[in-house]
């Protein structure tokens, strides 16, 4: 294969070995399984060693989604269920259980960790085109002999848990597609590697709001909209590759400290450039302006390889090369090129190669003529043969006019001047005569030896010996021009694809630069330590919540190795604490009978019984108590998000952060109920806690929000205490645990350890200080109690009150309901076996009227004759119930 650029005869050759290698590198194999109106699928990209899993999709039009998948993925081998009568595999091979076993054996055979160790690394995973598509990088295709039986073996459970973090293992049809796909690759010599990444179960992504895609209400709108989420907050990327790579970073937080520090240094460099002045700010904008022209090069080069690239895609490739060269020149002018990302970009880019590729495209393709003709057009002067064909085609009109003049001499003058010779691509050369002239001289065909080819409303078209000779000698000149241009474009494609690896590598490093630039913010750089298991957050903030609140109150977090102490900041000193003289139960009881009064200016005081020391001992378990509405759940998510952001290399919203690497994050915050799973809300909570107990290590972070609330209070409290005790008994193997609870009796009855094994914290509130002896009276008409949530997390155990009825008043619950709730609460607190909901004065009045109406109705003897009285009673009842 060759391409000639101009008349100089410069030729680029591709060997057969290179062609075979390139074809093998572009293998795309897909397995699809359709059953019971649901579709599952798996596909493998050999070029990038990536295995994608499509979450089972239900209630769809199979033709639409399969056509869409084929158009987007463009597989060159499709494995389908035999029942569809398109292909080839026995239906028995599409087996869910066998698919799980294949994946478990695949992972156990090729994981870099030993079988007996607690696994701390995983095959990399990322998001494909949508959040419903999951990926494994570098899948293996080794011989998978006898399948292991999934049992209670701890190793099998660990492997299954690891796979569930990166693969939709509950997607029945998708996992059923694994065996045929693996069978297709049996005997392949491909290897797969692993990367050190944090294990993040799917429920963690949901509870921490890492991704939060809202689908469009229209079934015809395929794309969803990313709402408030960490990805949406950080995604300021300007390239498709940057957006995709940022998703990968968020799906696979890294455990490589060097990589995290490299990203942090690069982010700091860009932030520093942005803050140095107006000139540098414009410098960053110029860089981003060039990055905007970096399109999806993998897709463009794939289209070029398949000879499906459009004019726009070729133009995008040329613009990519131009802007990459401009970007490199801009980076070379930077006052500081020592940033890792800058060094990486400059080391990967080859300006001479890019200029050569760009020159080949620019010298070969005329984009102006291509847009006019609607197809790729080669410039003049690129190929002598093409230029000759074009010159013949341009002179064709004059030649055909001369041929028509020669043949018209044999015809009468009134007919001869109407004769014409035309050329149609693919049909060749034809004699044409208007219909009215043909009617005037019907013997015309016999005179010139013509054969009628076809007619239109206005003309007759013929061929004779002269036009057939022109077909042989001149040929379909337009078709030859098109074919020659296609040949030259294909040769150009082959030449360009020789540098596919370099172009893709350039696009990848620019995507990484785009991600680094997107991570610049007003946050602070966290300090990573490999000498301790510490987690210290000073004045941390929730990165999402602070953007939707007018004022956000930051809080501190102290977790780490037992026995280590850290100095509390002045904001937590005991001098700022005033103990209320009224019990929390009394305040909460009074709140039940009133509604909030924002304008009340009565003095308020924080309620904190236990005072902290200036030097707080670090423990691995932090227990947070406090009232409802006081920010406990936000605080838990804030810790998880800050830890998460550290492991993608981002700066974090805090004044100071010191953190050791966290290998896993487990949460029990949000219950994801679904009719497709046979689990109740409490059952789902139990599954989350069970996973954390089974797989958490001393470097893991476990976040528990009010575990036990879904069952009987005694059972829930006992389970919660037992779970915390299980973690504490592990000693140095205990993970970092942050938990909240309303089971305050576990603290007051010393069921939880009070020997310093747990750091007790509470959310600070303020309530009116009252010394009124009659505060227990139900007559609260003269008191307007108010509770103010300060949203500060401080050391202590709190008052043990949830202030649930006060929160209910804030939520709009009517005072009458709250009043009844207060009475019931008092009776339950006194352990009374039975209680009656009291009537209010309005209730007594209503029921008194109803009794009178009932007596009047029963006194009626003949409804027919006394219908007026019956109607009056009914009208009175209607009026009574409508008020």
**Helicity range of the residues?**
40-55%
Number of helices, counting only DSSP H or I runs of 4 residues or more: 33
CATH superfamily of the largest domain: P-loop containing nucleotide triphosphate hydrolases
The separation of the N and C termini measures: 91 Å
Question: What's the CATH architecture name of the largest domain?
Answer: 3-Layer(aba) Sandwich
Mean pLDDT: 75
Radius of gyration: 39 Å
CATH top-level class of the largest domain: Alpha Beta
What is the CATH topology of the largest domain? Rossmann fold
Number of domains: 4
Shape: extended
Amount of beta strand: 5-15%
Structure write-up:
This protein is α+β, with helices and mostly antiparallel strands and 883 residues long. The chain has four domains: 27-195, Nucleotidyltransferase, domain 5; 270-408 and 476-520, Orthogonal Bundle (MutS, DNA mismatch repair protein, Chain A, domain 3); 527-829, Rossmann fold, CATH 3.40.50.300; 841-882. Strands 17, 19, 21, 22, 23, 24 and 25 form a seven-stranded mixed β-sheet that branches. β22 (701-705), α28 and β23 form a beta-alpha-beta unit. α9 packs across α24 and α17 (384-394) runs antiparallel to α23 (477-497). Mean pLDDT is 75; it is low at 1-22, 82-91, 112-152, 187-194, 569-614 and 769-784. Keywords: ATP-binding, DNA-binding, Nucleotide-binding. InterPro entries: DNA_mismatch_repair_MutS/MSH (IPR017261), DNA_mismatch_repair_MutS_C (IPR000432), DNA_mismatch_repair_MutS_core (IPR007696), DNA_mismatch_repair_MutS_sf (IPR036187), MutS (IPR045076), P-loop_NTPase (IPR027417).
């Amino acid at each position: 294969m060759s391409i000639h650029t101009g008349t100089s005869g410069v030729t680029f050759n591709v060997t057969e070995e290179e062609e075979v290698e390139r074809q093998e590198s572009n293998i795309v194999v897909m397995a699809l399984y359709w059953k019971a109106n649901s579709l599952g699928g798996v596909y493998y990209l050999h070029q990038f060693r990536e295995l994608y899993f499509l979450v089972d999709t239900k209630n769809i039009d199979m033709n639409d989604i399969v056509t869409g998948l084929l158009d987007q993925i463009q597989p060159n081998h499709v494995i389908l269920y035999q029942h569809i009568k398109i292909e080839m595999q026995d239906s028995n091979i599409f087996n869910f259980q066998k698919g799980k076993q294949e994946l478990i054996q695949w992972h156990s055979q090729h994981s870099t960790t030993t079988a007996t160790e607690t696994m701390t690394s995983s095959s990399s995973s990322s998001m494909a085109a949508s959040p419903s598509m999951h990926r494994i990088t570098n899948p293996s295709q080794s011989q998978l002999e006898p399948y292991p039986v999934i049992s209670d073996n701890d190793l099998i459970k660990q492997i299954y848990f690891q796979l569930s973090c990166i693969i939709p293992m509950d997607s029945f049809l998708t996992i059923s597609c694994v065996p045929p796909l693996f069978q297709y690759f049996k005997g392949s010599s491909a290897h797969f590697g692993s990367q050190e990444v944090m294990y993040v179960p799917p429920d963690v992504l949901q509870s921490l709001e890492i991704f939060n895609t809202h689908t469009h209400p229209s079934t015809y709108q395929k794309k969803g909209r990313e709402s408030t989420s960490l990805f949406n907050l950080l995604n300021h990327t300007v390239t498709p590759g940057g957006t995709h790579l940022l998703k990968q970073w968020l799906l696979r937080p890294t455990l490589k400290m060097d990589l995290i520090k490299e990203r942090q240094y690069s982010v700091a460099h860009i932030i520093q450039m942005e803050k140095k002045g107006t000139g540098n700010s414009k410098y960053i904008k110029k860089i981003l302006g060039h990055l905007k022209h970096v399109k999806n090069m993998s897709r463009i080069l794939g289209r070029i390889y398949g000879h499906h690239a459009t004019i726009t895609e070729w133009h995008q490739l040329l613009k990519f090369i131009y802007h990459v060269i401009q970007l490199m020149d801009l980076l070379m002018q930077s006052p500081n090129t020592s940033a890792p990302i800058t060094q990486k970009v400059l080391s990967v880019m080859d300006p001479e190669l890019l200029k050569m590729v760009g020159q080949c495209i620019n010298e070969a393709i005329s984009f102006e003529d291509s847009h006019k003709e609607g197809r790729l057009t080669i410039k003049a002067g690129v190929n002598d043969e093409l230029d000759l064909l074009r010159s013949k085609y341009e002179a064709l009109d004059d030649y055909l006019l001369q041929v028509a003049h020669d043949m018209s001499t044999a015809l009468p003058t009134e007919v001869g001047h109407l004769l014409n010779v035309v050329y149609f691509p693919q049909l060749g050369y034809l004699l044409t005569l208007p219909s009215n002239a043909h009617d005037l001289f019907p013997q015309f065909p016999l005179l010139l030896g013509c054969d009628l080819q076809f007619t239109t409303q206005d003309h007759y078209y013929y061929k004779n010996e002269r036009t057939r000779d022109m077909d042989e000698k001149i040929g379909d000149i337009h078709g030859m021009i098109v074919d020659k241009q296609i040949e030259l474009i294909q040769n150009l494609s082959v030449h360009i694809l020789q540098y596919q690896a370099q172009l893709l590598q350039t696009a990848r490093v620019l995507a990484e630069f785009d991600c680094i630039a997107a991570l610049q913010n007003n946050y602070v750089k966290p300090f990573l330590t490999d000498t301790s298991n510490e987690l210290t957050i000073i004045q941390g903030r929730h990165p999402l919540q602070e953007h939707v609140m007018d004022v956000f109150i930051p809080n501190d977090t102290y977790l780490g190795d037992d026995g280590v102490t850290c100095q509390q900041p002045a904001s937590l000193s005991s001098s700022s604490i005033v103990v209320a003289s009224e019990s929390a139960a009394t305040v909460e009881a009074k709140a039940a009978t009133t509604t909030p009064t924002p304008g009340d200016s009565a003095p308020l005081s924080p309620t904190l019984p236990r005072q902290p020391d200036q030097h707080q001992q670090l423990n691995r378990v932090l227990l947070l108590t406090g009232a409802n509405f006081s920010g406990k759940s936000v605080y838990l998510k804030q810790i998880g998000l800050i830890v998460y952001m550290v492991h993608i290399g981002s700066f974090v919203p805090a004044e100071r952060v010191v953190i050791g690497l966290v290998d896993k994050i487990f949460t029990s915050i949000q219950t994801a109920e679904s009719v497709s799973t046979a689990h109740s809300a409490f059952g789902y909570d139990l599954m989350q806690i069970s996973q954390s107990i089974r797989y958490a290590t001393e470097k893991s972070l476990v976040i528990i929000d009010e575990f036990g609330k879904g069952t009987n209070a005694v059972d829930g409290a006992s389970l919660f205490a037992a779970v915390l005790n299980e973690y504490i008994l592990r000693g140095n193997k205990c993970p970092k645990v942050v938990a909240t609870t309303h089971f305050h009796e576990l603290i007051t009855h010393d069921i939880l350890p009070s020997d310093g094994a747990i750091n007790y914290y509470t959310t600070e509130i303020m309530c009116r200080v009252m010394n009124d002896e009659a505060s227990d009276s139900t007559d609260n008409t003269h008191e307007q109690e108010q509770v103010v949530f300060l949203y500060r997390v401080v050391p202590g155990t709190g008052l043990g009150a949830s202030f649930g009825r006060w929160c209910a008043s804030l939520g709009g619950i009517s005072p009458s309901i709250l009043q009844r709730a207060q009475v019931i609460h008092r009776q339950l607190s006194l352990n009374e076996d039975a209680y009656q909901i009291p009537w209010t004065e309005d209730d007594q009045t209503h029921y008194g009227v109803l009794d009178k109406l009932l007596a009047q109705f029963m006194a009626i003897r003949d409804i027919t004759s006394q219908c007026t009285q019956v109607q009056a009673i009914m009208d009175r009842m209607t009026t009574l119930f409508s008020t």
